[in-house]
Design brief:
The protein contains 12 helices and 9 strands. With about 300 residues, it is α/β, with parallel strands linked by helices. Among the domains are: about 80 residues, Arc Repressor Mutant, subunit A (Orthogonal Bundle), CATH 1.10.10; about 110 residues, 3-Layer(aba) Sandwich (Rossmann fold). Helix 1 packs across helix 2 and helix 7 crosses helix 8.
């Protein structure tokens, strides 16, 4: 995301020895962009407690990063803080909000109003962060016409008209995985250029369309991995553990067992049928051939 040159407030005098501010053309690295919401969340909490300034160490600890990385990230914003004072909290809230595009209203459509869609529609944090839920959409006739968070659930046939009239550029997909790609295609065709995907599937989009994926099951699986390691357990292959595993895991384990069993049987069968290759009637070799070792090289001890 390209950034602009930031103007320093009167309380944000940069250090004299600070590096020269990066130009707009260089932009902000994606890794830095991913951390900006973390800084904003920590700064907002400080602002709500009327904290005027914060050091890089304190803010880094609140955001869960190291202070050197934080200072590097803020240098892309043109914000270097004040030596001995730190960063102006209110100014940083404004600066990061501006870079993230949160100083304007962003209409959002949510497609797929099941349990997760309902939960997102009722989430109060959207409005406070610059996101307005413009419409809720679904294709299920039993769902269309109901309401969530005070908004009516409208039919997918209205998607294009809603995107155009509300100037929607962000779509949220909370459908089952089988319908996600079709919904994604319709969103893109309607003019949506950013998609937040909660469906457990990979979406294919054209150039110019950004997709962010949120898969809660993957996050839980990663946590399960770390919990197993913290407990000092090795991955178990016992039947009792597999019996509690999800169906696809049990099916994969059964397939691997059948493949391993088949390989073992084939190997045993091959060994039983393989003839003895040692020909004891073969006369001993003489001359230079007899002097060669097992690898065909000359013997280390040459004949006298």
């Amino acid at each position: 995301m390209a950034i602009g040159r930031s103007t320093q407030s009167s309380s944000q005098t940069p250090d004299q020895g600070a590096a020269r501010r990066p130009s707009r053309a260089r932009g902000i690295p994606e890794a830095t962009v991913a951390r900006l919401p973390l800084y904003l969340r920590a700064l907002t909490a400080l602002s709500e407690r009327s904290v005027p300034t914060v050091s890089s160490e304190e803010l880094a600890a609140a955001a869960g990063v190291n202070s050197a990385k934080l200072r590097k990230d803020f240098s892309y914003l043109g914000s270097y803080g004040t030596r001995g004072v730190g960063y102006d909290v209110e100014y940083l809230v404004y600066q990061i909000s501006r870079e993230l595009g949160l100083t304007q209203d962003w209409p959002v459509v949510i497609v797929g109003i099941g349990n997760l869609g309902h939960a997102l529609a009722n989430y109060g944090g959207f409005a406070s962060r610059g996101f307005r839920v413009a419409a809720l959409l679904d294709a299920d006739p039993t769902v269309v016409g109901s309401s969530a968070a005070g908004l009516p659930v409208r039919h997918m046939d209205e998607l294009e008209a809603i995107v155009e009239s509300q100037q929607v550029s962000i779509g949220v997909i909370t459908t089952p995985p089988g319908a996600a790609q079709q919904v994604c295609d319709r969103l893109v065709e309607a003019g949506v250029t950013s998609i937040l995907n909660f469906a457990p599937t990979v979406l294919t989009v054209p150039d110019g369309v950004d997709v962010r994926k949120v898969d809660l099951s993957i996050e839980l699986q990663i946590l399960a991995f770390h919990e197993q390691r913290k407990a000092g357990e090795e991955p178990s292959h016992s039947d009792s553990v597999l019996d509690r595993a999800p169906g696809p895991v049990r099916a994969a384990a059964a397939k691997l067992r059948r493949a391993a069993s088949g390989s073992a049987k084939a190997e045993r069968s091959g060994q039983a049928e393989r003839p003895d290759r040692t020909d004891k009637s073969e006369p001993a070799k003489s001359g230079k051939a007899a002097a060669k070792g097992a690898d065909g090289d000359l013997s280390a001890v040459m004949p006298a």
